[in-house]
Amino acid sequence: MSNKHPNLLTPSIGLGCMNLSHAYGSPVAEEEAVKALHEAFDMGYRHFDTATLYGGGKNELLVGKSLKHLRNEFFLASKCGMAIVDGKKEINGRPDNIRQQCENSLKRLGVEHIDLYYLHRKDPNVAIEESVGALNDLVKEGKIGSIGLSEVSAETLRKAHAEAPIAALQSEYSLWTRNPEIAALEATKELGVTFVAFSPLARGYLTGAVNSADELEQGDIRLNMPRFNDEHYPTNLALLNNFLEMAKEIGCTPAQLALAWVLHQGDHVVAIPGTRFVNHMRDNLAASDVKLSAGQLNDLNDMINQSNVSGTRYNAVQQKEIDTEEF
């Protein structure tokens, strides 16, 4: 075993484990999912990201079962404050709930310590300082190593950081979701907070693998996202042609190009693409070797951005759950 415990920034690509249990069609069979997580570790992943919400706790159980015997060899992140309660998604950032969910996470994961524990969503009915205060108590007790926030604004981050040190802000970030560029990227850099980009492949769009929403399985969350519907997706697909062409010219896959763009946005930026497929995990991990010139970055910025992508990233119901800046 190595003496140095892996940290959040190394390697710069982690694994979002959600897809194995939740959100994108049917969950992967357990035996296959365990095997995939073992292979992910063997190929070099050292940052694994899960949450109370995913699969109603099943994803934490899966990550625990697969990796707890390697506990000192990887960086473990999970989340609280959003869960399935009586069959419905509930956002609850009250201190007593955060404490209880942490105990449950530790139990499901089969560990005594979680390196990074995020508040998955800001509870509009609870002051952020209260939620963060409860997380800070868990840090003092040694149950969690550090505090993270997910999908919050720069203003909320600053308030939280004044209450207790925030280690990471996780938000959706890719060529087609640029909201962090409004204020969050700058605020994280200024405060010394790691920025963790989820859905850096634009929920599969930037891989070129999704030609139409008709290809998506029933229950896939993208079916409720405006950008993937018949009104908007054809426009978005048309934007991909030059992107796919550039990947070919550079000699990398579209997924690697999308991830390389994210990683070039700052030394404090890491990405956690999620996938159910081992070959995609391998492909994604290699993206940290792709170097882009200033000219290529400018071309990519012009190709796909908030001005030419059609449709909002969330529907009206989902939009109410987040606290990020909007264009």
TrEMBL record:
Enzyme class at the top of the EC tree: oxidoreductase
Span of domain NADP-dependent oxidoreductase: 13-302
Keywords: Oxidoreductase
UniProt GO molecular function: oxidoreductase activity
InterPro entries in the cross-refs: AKR (IPR020471), Aldo-Keto_reductase (IPR050791), NAD(P)_OxRdtase_dom_sf (IPR036812), NADP_OxRdtase_dom (IPR023210)
Name of this chain's protein: General stress protein 69
Gene: yhdN_2
UniProt entry tagged with the keyword Oxidoreductase: yes
GO cellular component: cytoplasm
EC number: 1.1.1.-
